[in-house]
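User: My instructor asked us to take a sequence, write out its structure as tokens, and then describe one feature of it. I'm not sure where to start. Here is the sequence I was given:
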Amino acid sequence: MIRRYQNLINGKWVDAQSGKTYENRNPANWDELIGLFPKSGKEDVDEAVKAARAAFEKWRLVPAPKRGDIMRKVGDILVDRKMEIAREMTREMGKVLSETMGDVQEGIDTAYYAASEGRRLFGRTVPSELPDKFAMAIRVPIGVAGIITPWNFPMAIPTWKIFPAVLSGNTVVFKPATDTPKTALTLVEIMMEAGIPEGVVNLVFGGGSEVGNAIVEHPDVDLISFTGSTSVGKQLSRNASETLKRVSLELGGKNAQIVMDDADLDLALDGIIWGAFGTTGQRCTATSRLILHEKIYDKFMTMLVDRTTKLKIGDGLLPGTEVGPCVNESQRKTVQSYVEIGQREGATLVAGGSIASGNGLGKGWFYEPTVFVNVTPTMRIAKEEIFGPVLSILRTRSLEESISLMNDTVYGLSSSIYTSDVNKAFVAIRDIKAGITYINVPTIGAEAHLPFGGVKQTGNGHREGGWTVYDFFTEWKAVYIDYSGKFQRAQIDNY
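Assistant: Let's start with the prediction itself. The structure tokens for your sequence are:
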């Protein structure tokens, strides 16, 4: 029996009003059908927003520490079901089991952080310029939050957004990626089990053009948190501006790792393999450029090619698998097209460059980990986000040239440098234009309690993670209390 899943609106599981569904399949074995999910539309979004708006009036009055208690329970349930959820996630989107376990752990960490933030939504008290008058600023919830998330971190990224949104007193309309609906459904089921009231979190499945746009353009949605491509983010921002919504955009990256001539090469090799080919390169923080100092170039390239060609490709649920499939056929075609572009531009393949086949890989969307040399900074494979297991190598002569190459991109998300010189490390921290800089660590591996986000066309200035995301999901309200018993005027020349 093929399981048919439903939207969650106002605490009730319901079909899309159109009655239409779409298939969710395993990218490692496309013959395996996971389930059917609602192909929703504007009318379903309308119902979800109506429910969220009504629920907001009660939810905003629940004390933040009580909201935090629910977040703690969510974390406890995630701990108990960690392996089950991880296996389900690998089956749904392909990355290896150790990575999906990390994805769930990120949700656990975010839940417990949100639980503690319920007692730490700090305001400010300041002196008034007038006697017998008290002045303070407090943080208050905003309203209905539209949450639109990608497929590559189907547990972690929704928790980065939904947990702080509801902890702050907002209600949510959640549209997950069409490639990973089951993990989203599991997360929402867990929140219900933990005690989230009806209407506080509403789940609407469907495509971006139907559901996503309807959320962004809805007049009763107050703020949008979106993670996805830069091109979609720009259009979303334009659409949201019609109703002056608050919008947080976490977009693309073209991240680089620098390896200096004084680096620990074995450590740097571990970093680039993980950064470039973890999650099959399907991360906004993936290392898609490697900048090597000329003094260690030949030695490091020999090490890199040897290691890359030995990576085990396969189903992420099987022991020993290091690289899983692309998420779908379209994504693999995108990767293949960029490999062809790189070859036409004059870059040289030294590893990979083909669809992976044999050993039971024929039913999935597998692609070989790929390495290009003779790459110049103006090539498209050095400029554009590929979102797949493709690494471009650039050669430099100095720290200054390496940082200049690092910054030669419209993006500015993550960055990494390997060096044993603390002075070079601090110059890199100062001069690299990115929201995240790692020293002797790859470009992937952000922690839940620090700000996450980038500069330039990677986003619009907001941050997820840590304490900073709570500024996005709350408004500041200034409060003045005059206990003098007489009429006093501020902003008048009282001097």
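For the description part of your assignment, you could build on this observation: The two ends are 80 Å apart (CA to CA). Try explaining in your own words what that tells you about the chain.
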